[in-house]
Amino acid sequence: MLIFDAAYLFLGSKDLERKTQRKVVINDKTIAILLNYIEQKANGGDTISRRHYLTAERDSNAIQSHKPLYDSLKKQGIQVDIRKFKRKTTYCPNKSCPVSKSGFDIQVQQEVDVAIVMKAMKAVVANQLETLALVAGDGDFKDMIEFLTDTHHKKVAVFGWSANMSLTLSEKATPGLAFHLDDIWEQLSEPIQSSTYSVAQPAIP
């Protein structure tokens, strides 16, 4: 099984974007490159048949504007799972900030992390998972990975960007199966001024 945390795929690359003036572009060509890299590293080149892309959109207009991206994913047999956003109140840590007491609302993904965990859990309970390839960098997934590797003795490969991939997450992966997508950055990106289409996911705290 392969699971993408879509927000991380884009937001996690921001450090490389600033350094190289290149931007992640997801289209038919780059998805094929990404899948090939993941399958070679995680599954010895064998096809991973169950593929999921978890993301969130604000409304139907946003979904429509990203249709080329979702169409490209579906062509490669990747199931797109779109969730909603919710409002979350956050506070400025600086006491002199005007909103340090009242706070301000931001939008964050709703249910995406839970959905990622549940897809893996349902698959292992149904005896439909031997290897999980996870494209994510959030250390919050460490308990899920530990459950899969230690309790169910499954193989878990983790793929992320070197600048912000949780050390805890990579340590929980099956030994030798934590990889940096930086290795194929040039193949997954284009110079910012000539990028065709890409989807900048909203910032998530």
Describe the protein in words.
The chain is of the alpha/beta class. The protein has a single domain, classed as 3-Layer(aba) Sandwich (Rossmann fold). Helices cover 38% and strands 23% of the residues. The protein has helices at 6-11, 14-20, 28-43, 60-65, 67-75, 112-125, 142-151, 167-172, 185-188; strands spanning 2-5, 22-24, 51-56, 78-83, 85-90, 104-109, 131-135, 155-160, 178-180, 189-191. The strands form 3 sheets. Strands 4-3-1-7-8-9 form a 6-stranded parallel sheet, sandwiched between helices. It has a two-stranded antiparallel ribbon with strand order 2-10. Strand 8 (155-160), helix 8 (167-172) and strand 9 (178-180) form a beta-alpha-beta unit. The chain starts with a strand and ends in a 14-residue tail after the last strand. 29% of the residues are buried. Mean pLDDT is 86; it is low at 104-108 and 195-205.
Q: Layout of helices and strands, plus pairs?
A:
Elements: E1 2-5, H1 6-11, H2 14-20, E2 22-24, H3 28-43, E3 51-56, H4 60-65, H5 67-75, E4 78-83, E5 85-90, E6 104-109, H6 112-125, E7 131-135, H7 142-151, E8 155-160, H8 167-172, E9 178-180, H9 185-188, E10 189-191
Parallel strand pairs: 1-3, 1-7, 3-4, 7-8, 8-9
Antiparallel strand pairs: 2-10, 5-6
